[in-house]
Design a protein that fits this description.
This protein is an alpha/beta fold and 294 residues long. The chain folds into three domains: 60 residues, Nucleic acid-binding proteins (OB fold (Dihydrolipoamide Acetyltransferase, E2P), Beta Barrel); 146 residues, Rossmann fold; 64 residues, Ribonucleotide Reductase Protein R1, domain 1, CATH 1.10.40.50. The protein is 28% helix and 25% strand. The protein is globular. About 4% of the residues have low confidence. Its EC number is 3.6.1.-. Monomer. Associates with 30S ribosomal subunit, binds 16S rRNA. InterPro entries: G_CP_dom (IPR030378), NA-bd_OB-fold (IPR012340), P-loop_NTPase (IPR027417), Ribosome_biogen_GTPase_RsgA (IPR004881), RsgA_GTPase_dom (IPR010914), RsgA_N (IPR031944). It is found in: Cytoplasm.
Length: 294
């Protein structure tokens, strides 16, 4: 009997990293009946006669679990967006951030291709960087030059399990190739017709980079808010979450309620108008989804 971490799942096999190396395993026969599905990132107990013939016997309790991509025990998410081709989208970034916050992950925002910007566009990106840093987020700017910015990113990976997510076509696979030369992860050019790249990653795998593990995943294939209640949304906006305790009503949605600390802060210019606009947009989306499902 031994323990290890699942670092790859492919075609019904689970590849478990242990003291003896990576062991190819199958799930225990009764897992399906007990509705247990091992995930990449799981700490497991297994037994194996050799490196290609092991069985997972037990999956230890998870600290978190993502559905899309299917992975467990994640510490942080590297959210990769480009400044250009495709253009930076604060709306899409905020949508990702809500999902990251809802899963209690630490986000690290990476904006790539900044060297392609003219001076006016660069100032705009730098203003977004300052805005998100004021909220408390880490924002790193990188260029299309292979090693530019990589030294900034590597320290954030050490000792952590990270997922890489973000807009399609922004260079997530290229980033991983730069972080660990020799990976040779497949990358596709951006479609000029669609303005986005094709997903090139078809399975979930944890790659060892520095002293950390990074998941090369297909990313978040769904960014809807089905599992989020309207009253919980502001908890995924840190600048609102801090103020919510001072609202008169518990479960305040910061829309029409009296004596709302969040609305007061917004009126004073302490909350970004862009962030508030996105919050209200997401709130409407959640409410309309709930009406459909009810």
């Amino acid at each position: 009997m031994a323990t290890g971490m699942i670092v790859k799942a492919l075609s019904g096999f689970y590849y478990v990293q242990s003291e003896d190396g990576v062991i190819q395993c199958r799930g225990r026969g009764n897992f399906r009946k007990r509705q247990i599905k091992p995930l990449v990132g799981d700490q497991v107990e297994f037994e194996a006669e050799n490196v290609t013939d092991g069985y997972i016997l037990h999956v230890f309790e998870r600290k978190n679990e993502l559905i899309r991509p299917p992975i467990a025990n994640v510490d942080q998410a590297l959210l990769v967006f480009s400044a250009l081709e495709p253009d930076f989208s604060p709306l899409l970034l905020d949508r990702f951030l809500v999902h990251i916050e809802a899963n209690n992950l630490i986000p690290v925002i990476i904006i790539s291709k900044v060297d392609l910007l003219d001076d006016t566009s660069l100032l705009k990106i730098e203003s977004y960087k300052k805005e998100y840093e004021t909220i408390g987020y880490t924002v790193l700017l990188t260029s299309t030059l292979q090693n530019n910015g990589i030294d900034k990113i590597l320290p954030y990976l050490d000792g952590r399990v990270s997922v890489v997510a973000g807009q399609s076509g922004v260079g997530k696979s290229s980033l991983l190739n730069s972080l660990k030369p020799g990976l040779n992860i497949e990358t596709n050019e951006i479609s000029s017709h669609l303005g986005r790249g094709k997903h090139t990653t078809r399975h979930v795998e944890l790659l060892s980079i520095g002293t950390g593990l990074v998941a090369d995943t297909p990313g978040f294939s769904s960014l809807d808010f089905i599992d989020l209640e309207a009253e919980d949304l502001s908890g995924c906006f840190p600048e609102m979450d801090e103020l919510s305790a001072n609202c008169k009503f518990r479960g305040c949605t910061h829309t029409s309620e009296p004596k709302c600390a969040v609305k007061e802060a917004y009126d004073l210019g302490e909350i970004s108008s862009t962030r508030m606009k996105h919050y209200l947009q997401f709130l409407d989306e959640i409410k309309s989804q709930k009406r459909r499902y009810d």
